[in-house]
Amino acid sequence: MATRENNEKRLLSRVATSVPDAQSAIDRSLPEFPAATPIDEDSYFRLHKPPAYLSQISTGVASFINENHGRRRKIVLVTSGGTTVPLENNTVRFIDNFSAGTRGATSAEYFLEQGYSVIFLHREFSLLPYSRHFSHTTNCLLDHLQFSQDGERVEVDGVLQKDLLSVLAQYQKVKANNMLLLVPFTTVHQYLFTLKLIAQELSVIGSDALFYLAAAVSDFFLPTSRIPEHKIQSQEHGGKLVVDLEPVPKFLRRLVDSWAPIAMIVSFKLETDNTILIKKARTALERYNHQLVIGNLLQTRKYEVVFVTPDNEHWIRLSKDAAEHKVEIESLIIPRIVAMHKTWIESRETM
């Protein structure tokens, strides 16, 4: 009876309530917003208040860059997780973006394995490098802990012992060498202010900087001038809530042209329709003039991606055997990006 109940619990834990009905998706073939101009940049950052903690982040980032680049390490900024759009200043309601930060956290680990130092700009409470292996939904640590025979200590069971030892060894090495800096954000405003700050700090190391922009950034926001101070009361609107959102400026071109003009920049394009994925990725590459767009479909993003560069398109796919053995596709993505970054650095040195 107990075994049956445990099996039922495991079955229920695998129910994927977040999987959408693909047939209900909107038309994504519509043209995207144009790239932000210097005027757009000036207007946005002038009209919105920077996070109060930004100077603290500036100091920490500058110190991290100086130490790690002084040790001749290349540095990658990995952005991860989704941004929120608050609907009230004392926020109760907000619009969120789909992302648990899995790709960003996983990729950060593989960059660290390649000898890069990582600035991890992540959504607060999203998945983090190393601890992601033992989250509340994956290898929940509490399920693998038990009391010692005398009841005085907590022990890890044999199932998790080997994995925990390996991950802990990697984490301790990274921590001892100060190769990972965690920088949190929650709202889209916090993300954009912090991204610009870190980009400008990284610009001093030129082509040794790499940007891996895996965060899911909101397409729309509510301007500060229209955000109410307190919780919106439902009765004030007759049971309806109408929100007038503005498009978030597409600052990727400003990153390429102004914030970190010599760095190599990688962006992502997530779609649900395979017939427009390549077109959307190539359009983004041409619009923002950077080096690589990684295209992926919501339904298959863990098993295949496409690299779109100015010269070609290249699919990276996990074999059926690799997928069954839980090989992470980021283990194939990151070495290829590292090789491209090496070529990028060499090309800048000959200019």
TrEMBL record:
Protein origin, superkingdom: Eukaryota
Protein name per Swiss-Prot or TrEMBL: DNA/pantothenate metabolism flavoprotein C-terminal domain-containing protein
Q: Which SUPFAM superfamilies is this protein grouped with?
A: CoaB-like (SSF102645)
InterPro entries named among the record's database cross-references: CoaB-like_sf (IPR035929), DNA/pantothenate-metab_flavo_C (IPR007085)
Q: Which organism is it from?
A: Pichia membranifaciens NRRL Y-2026
Mind listing the GO molecular function terms for this protein?
phosphopantothenate--cysteine ligase activity
Which GO terms are recorded in the biological process aspect for this UniProt protein? acetyl-CoA biosynthetic process from pantothenate; coenzyme A biosynthetic process
One cellular component GO annotation, for this chain's record? nucleus
